[in-house]
Specification:
The complex is a heterodimer of chains A (about 625) and B (about 425). In chain A, about 40% of the residues lie in helices and about 15% in strands. Chain A is α+β, with helices and mostly antiparallel strands. Chain A has 4 domains: about 5-195 and about 340-455, FAD/NAD(P)-binding domain; about 200-335, Elongation Factor Tu (Ef-tu), domain 3 (Beta Barrel), CATH 2.40.30.260; about 470-550, no CATH class; about 560-620, GidA associated domain, C-terminal subdomain (DNA polymerase, domain 1, Orthogonal Bundle), CATH 1.10.150.570. Chain A has a 6-stranded antiparallel sheet, with helices on one face. Chain A has a 5-stranded parallel sheet with strand order 6-2-1-10-21, with helices on one face. A 4-stranded antiparallel sheet of chain A has the order 12-11-20-13, with no helix packed on it. Chain B has about 425 residues and is α/β, with parallel strands linked by helices. Chain B has helices spanning about 25-35, 85-95, 110-115, 120-130, 135-145, 150-175, 185-205, 205-210, 225-235, 280-295, 340-355, 365-380, 385-405, 410-420; strands spanning about 5-10, 15-25, 45-50, 55-65, 75-80, 100-105, 215-220, 250-260, 260-265, 295-300, 310-315, 330. Chain B has a 6-stranded mixed sheet with strand order 3-4-5-2-1-6. A 6-stranded mixed sheet of chain B has the order 8-9-7-10-11-12, with helices on both faces. In chain B, a hairpin with a 2-residue loop joins strand 8 and strand 9. The two termini of chain B are about 20 Å apart. The chains are: A alpha+beta (about 625), B alpha/beta (about 425). The interface between A and B is large, with 47 and 42 residues. Bound molecules: flavin-adenine dinucleotide (FAD), guanosine-5'-triphosphate (GTP) and magnesium ion.
């Protein structure tokens, strides 16, 4: 069979979510990747989640994606980052055993209905009158499909750097990949270069673990996926060490040999996880940087030293590593390196991640200028759902900045473009008090069920959960008197009066458990059977005054989201816009007035001009 | 494209000069039709204006400004005509007859300037106040607004809050990296200072105060001489005076400027308990309502019996039945004029303190409300222990600043605003 609704190229995190998402929506889907055995491989740090990123993958999970289930299957270390801060910025993160993670991804992919796996190399896109019509594989096979999703990671013009050494492309079969790359370049798409890097891997048997402080997996029971019942694997601990002056000296003495400083790489790297040579160069006054030593799996001795990504020559990496506490005898198994690669300017994409210039062609993942598995997975999901929606009678779920980090990311990418690899951060989400990692299901699963991209298993789970919510609601409304609480030695003022439990929970030092004596047994049991949900409801109550204050703002936002600046909106004709402003708006093509307001550099005055003109234009049209 | 609009923009005729402005793509051709020739940009030239039949309308000074670098962002022409009603009406008729031209609606010129990005919202608001300004003081305050002084201030606040937010966000998003430490100790201080600055602005006299005038209410028992003093203060016989107790029954209000300061004087019914007259009793109730709205109450009755903080005025100092007040603030005779100037002087000084200072930008009601939101958010941020909620408060403050310079305003709000402009600006 050579004809499909949706073709996905690339079996990385983006490709897997795109393919499974499209298939779940009922589209006949095929996933094409070089090596089917490499599907679900983690190219770098085997960790999933973290600050901001944890939100993204929980949202992918809420729409029945793959990554969280695989993360739980592989998890050997769980940690809730930012636990000391408010729950809206907690970042669930796991370290996963690579092998277990990949095995679970492949199990899910193989079990997915409507999904065909094709080993091979995508050599060229087949276009018909400007639209995508399918794909040609390196072996000459032609595949038909009206929608193709590119999830090819860094294959476009990738170059690896390590000291003075250079390698082209990595594992990719040079010629044919070049053909696809050439085809894309020929399509006159806006492209730019970015770089990223990875640290050396260390043999764990050569680390003096005993001399280093440990960081244990937390002993709670939360999991990445809502559907995972319990943690599966034995948990390992990480250790913490630091770079030293001696390590810094070794780096400084060899900065000129790093391609970052020799001028070999001039693409921008991520400010958020800079290479160690960058850190030393930019923060010269610091006497050390923290390094986490993270085991890569249960059955491997490889250890990932998080915090020293580098492209220095191997001998310098060696000296630097050995200068750190606990690593004086450490052996490097695989040296670190940097990659420089081409990416597509994501402003060339519409919000469903389709290339404006080539209808039917979608791009997701690192190819769009992002970094990270989580960012890739989330984009893959969106591209997959939308591509499938285009070929079926279903509608992809409606996501916007007020309901998901996923939409925040896609909105940022498609409007603002990237000047460095894009990484999710909680500060990018203006409505983050309502977008918590632990309420992703509440926010999105219902939308997923309506869109038809959610399995029966998850639908049932969700129904059950919503039923429990109804049961628990009266508990939060139940009123208790301050006098009673004070008499039970709770830290509240006696004269505080009568308040519902939802409000008492906002007081420092008042927890569910403290209030149970006043709650009737049946409700208390329901509570203990649904602690996650109860916590979520308590958080909702705690943030309630702030959420209420955002309502007016959201109404305003939705109103200007409704003012469409359709694809052919003539930005150049809006009177009073400077040519720079017109250029920015035209390349970002904001689909609505609200989106125009988020295009960088657009001033209030320009926005007002746009508003007035758009109203006129809309009525004229 | 939109119509080309025109209007008399120099105040109601008759006046020495009447300026007619024409804005829009047809402004140039309209000018050619009236003057029969082209003009050098930005240069004034004397020309004879004629209507379609060739009849002379006026000898006018003509200015031609090609867009978009004009006040409205469009092609713009100004005709400085002789200010007589008939001349202006004739020129207007001739313009109206040109196809593609129509008379401007209220606020339309400014609206176009705003729509074309020539001014921002705060400046537009300043202009609207400028145009309705009646006194010198009002004009000075409105000019501050229109000149963008307030916009610049808001921009500075916004930047300051952005900087604070950035520190906070770093602590929130990168706390897993040891390179980012906790918040610097100056953080709370920074918010505190900003918050104080906002409070200071909020406590300043408001722009409407200039439009409404400093409110002085005259109060006292019947026949105490309130209406007579009222007439003396406004220098006109607006209120009926007589020796019949209960002459004034309703509230009378008059606006005048004294020493360029806008005042609103209010005469009220005399207060007495035993009145059987229903109408008079209603008048007395109304009088009491006025006391609450007053900036200053002048009390003409027996000492100590007036409303709180009222000024004690001993009136009718020349009359046989003069009742002295031992600690009167002012002693005067409204009929003879003695002491009245001193009272005016006192009122002017009080008003100067309570009204916006010359050259100081003054907030209007909308700006005051939005700035209050920002101030409230900052207050909330100061003692917010949870950095996440503190960040939310700062975000709210930023949102308020955006609204002040017109970032997220809705069309309705714009309509309401521009409806306040008189035609022609
Ligand atoms: C050196 C390095 C270090 C990194 N460090 C980190 C890190 O520490 N943490 C982190 O979160 N992220 C890191 N990243 C980023 C992260 O690996 C990527 O962002 C993420 O994997 C991107 O996912 P993707 O699905 O877009 O692409 P990939 O995971 O790269 O998947 C691309 C897939 O497409 C296939 N493919 C490509 N071309 C073709 C073709 N023509 N035909 C068929 N198949 C094709 C490839 O075989 C591969 O399976 C790093 C990346 C690199 C390169
Ligand atoms: N000699 C003299 N007579 C005055 C003076 N002011 C007011 N009168 C007289 O006092 C009488 C009452 O004055 P009004 O001004 O009507 O008094 P009012 O307080 O307004 O009275 P009501 O409206 O009835 O409450 C009139 O006959 C005035 O002519 C003054 O300064 N000198
Ligand atoms: Mg009177």
């Amino acid at each position: 069979m050579h004809s499909f609704d949706v073709l996905v190229i690339g079996g990385g995190h983006a490709g897997v979510e795109a393919a499974c998402g499209a298939a779940r929506m009922g589209a006949r889907t095929a996933l094409v990747s070089f090596d089917l055995g490499a599907i679900g491989a983690m190219s770098c740090n085997p960790a999933i989640g973290g600050l901001g990123k944890g939100h993204l993958v929980r949202e992918v999970d809420a729409l029945d994606g793959v990554i969280c289930r695989a993360a739980d299957a592989g998890a050997i270390h769980y940690r809730m980052l930012n636990r000391s801060k408010g729950s809206a910025v907690w970042g669930p993160r796991v370290q996963a055993d690579r092998v277990l993670f990949k095995a679970e991804v492949q199990r899910i992919v193989k079990a997915q209905a409507n999904l065909t796996l094709i080993a091979g190399e995508a050599a060229a896109l087949r276009l018909e009158s400007g639209r995508v019509a399918g794909l040609e594989l390196a072996d000459g096979t032609a595949l038909d499909a009206p929608r193709v999703i590119l999830c090819t990671g860094t294959f476009l013009g990738g170059t690896l750097f390590r000291g003075e050494e250079r390698f082209t492309g990595g594992r990719i079969g040079e010629n044919s990949a070049q053909r696809l790359a050439k085809q894309l370049r020929g399509a006159d798409l806006p492209m730019a270069r970015l770089k990223t890097g990875t640290p050396p891997r260390i043999d764990g048997r050569t680390i003096d673990w005993a001399s280093l402080p440990e960081q244990a997996s937390d002993d709670e029971s939360w999991t990445m996926s809502a559907l995972t019942e319990r943690r599966a694997n034995p948990q390992v601990f990480c250790a913490i060490t630091r770079t030293t002056e001696a390590a810094h000296d070794a780096i400084r003495a060899n900065l000129h040999r790093s391609p970052l400083f020799s001028g070999a790489i001039d693409a921008a790297g991520p400010r958020y996880c800079p290479s160690i040579e960058d850190k030393i160069h930019r923060f010269g006054d610091r006497d050390g940087h923290q390094v986490f030593l993270e085991p890569e799996g249960l059955n491997t001795h490889l250890v990932y030293p998080n915090g020293i990504s580098t492209s220095l020559p191997v001998d310098v990496q060696h000296d630097m590593v050995r200068a750190m506490a606990g690593l004086s005898k450490a052996e490097i198994v695989e040296p670190g390196y940097a990659v420089e690669y081409d990416h597509i300017d994501p402003r060339a994409l519409t919000p469903d991640l389709q290339l404006r210039a080539i209808p039917g062609l979608y791009c997701a993942g690192q190819i769009n200028g992002t970094t990270g598995y989580e960012e890739a997975a989330a984009q893959g999901l969106i591209a997959g759902l939308n591509a499938a929606a285009g070929e079926t009678d279903r509608q992809a779920p409606f996501l916007d900045r007020a309901n998901s980090y996923i939409a925040v990311m896609i909105d940022d990418l498609t409007l603002q473009g990237v000047s460095e690899p894009y990484r999710m951060l909680t500060s990018r989400a203006e409505y983050r008090l309502r977008l918590r990692a632990n309420n992703a299901s509440t926010r999105l699963t219902k939308l997923g069920v309506e869109a038809g991209c959610v399995s029966d298993e998850r639908s049932k789970w969700f129904e059950h959960r919503e039923a429990a919510r109804t049961v628990l609601a009266p508990l939060f409304a139940q009123k208790l008197h301050s006098k009673d609480l004070a008499e039970a030695d709770l830290p509240v003022r006696r004269d505080g009066g009568e308040k519902p439990i939802s409000e008492w929970l906002r007081h420092d030092g008042v927890e569910f458990a403290d209030l149970m004596p006043w709650v009737d047994t049946e409700l208390a049991e329901a509570l203990y059977a649904n602690t996650d949900l109860a916590d979520e409801m308590a958080e909702d109550a705690a943030y309630e005054p702030y959420l209420a204050r955002q309502e007016a703002e959201l109404r305003d936002l939705r109103a200007s989201e409704n003012l469409a600046l359709a694809g052919d909106f003539p930005f150049g004709e809006v009177p009073g816009l400077s040519s720079e402003m017109i250029e920015r708006l035209t390349s970002a093509s904001p689909p609505t007035l609200a989106a125009a307001g988020r295009v960088p550099g657009v001033t209030p005055a320009a926005l007002s001009a746009l508003l007035v003109y758009a109203r006129r234009w809309q009525t004229a049209a | 494209m939109s119509d080309t609009i025109f209007a008399i923009s120099s105040g109601a005729p008759p006046a020495a000069i009447g300026v007619i402005r024409i804005s829009g793509s047809e402004a140039g051709s309209a000018l050619r039709k009236l003057a029969g020739r082209d003009f050098t940009a930005r240069r004034s030239s004397l020309t004879t204006l004629r209507d379609a039949d060739g009849d002379t309308l006026d000898q006018a000074l003509v200015l031609w400004f090609p867009g978009p670098a004009t006040a409205t962002g469009e092609d713009l022409a100004e005709l400085h005509c002789h200010g007589g009603r008939a001349v202006l009406a004739a020129v207007s008729r001739a313009l109206e007859a040109i196809s593609g031209l129509r008379a401007a609606e209220a606020g339309e010129f400014t609206r176009r300037a705003f729509a074309n990005g020539r001014i921002d919202l705060a400046e537009a608001e300043g202009l609207s106040e400028l145009l309705s300004a009646e006194t010198e003081l009002q004009r000075a305050a409105a000019i501050q607004m229109a000149g963008g002084a307030f916009s610049d201030q808001v921009e500075a606040w916004r930047t300051a809050v952005l900087r604070l937010s950035a520190q906070l966000e770093a602590a929130l998003d990168f706390s897993d990296e040891d390179d980012v430490s906790e918040l610097p100790p100056q953080f709370a201080e920074g918010i505190g200072m900003l918050s104080q600055e906002l409070e200071e602005w909020l406590s300043r006299p408001r722009a409407e105060k200039l439009g409404e005038g400093y409110r002085v209410v005259l109060a006292g028992p019947p026949n105490s001489g309130k209406s007579t003093l009222f007439n003396a203060l406004i220098e006109s016989e607006a209120a009926i005076t007589s020796d019949i107790a209960g002459t004034t029954r309703d509230v009378i209000e008059r606006n005048v400027a004294i020493a360029s300061i806008p005042f609103s004087f209010v005469d009220t019914a005399g207060l007495r308990d035993e009145s059987e007259d229903t109408i008079e009793r209603i008048g007395i109730d109304r009088a009491r309502e006025q006391f609450a709205r007053a900036d200053t109450v002048l009390w003409l009755g027996p000492e100590g019996e007036g409303p709180e903080r009222a000024w004690e005025v001993a009136a009718k100092s020349d009359a046989p039945d003069y009742q002295a007040k031992p600690s009167a603030d002012y002693i005067l005779s409204a009929t003879k004029g003695a002491g009245v100037d001193e009272l005016k002087q006192g009122l002017v000084e009080a008003a100067r303190v309570a009204l916006p200072k010359p050259g100081e930008a003054a907030l209007n009601a909308r700006q005051h409300a939005v700035l209050s939101d920002a101030a409230q958010a900052l207050r909330g941020a100061i003692d917010q222990g949870d950095p996440l909620l503190c960040a939310e408060e700062l975000r709210q403050a930023r949102g308020a600043f955006d609204r002040l310079i017109g970032r997220t305003t809705t069309e309705d709000m714009l309509d309401a605003l521009f409806g306040r402009f008189c035609i022609g600006k």
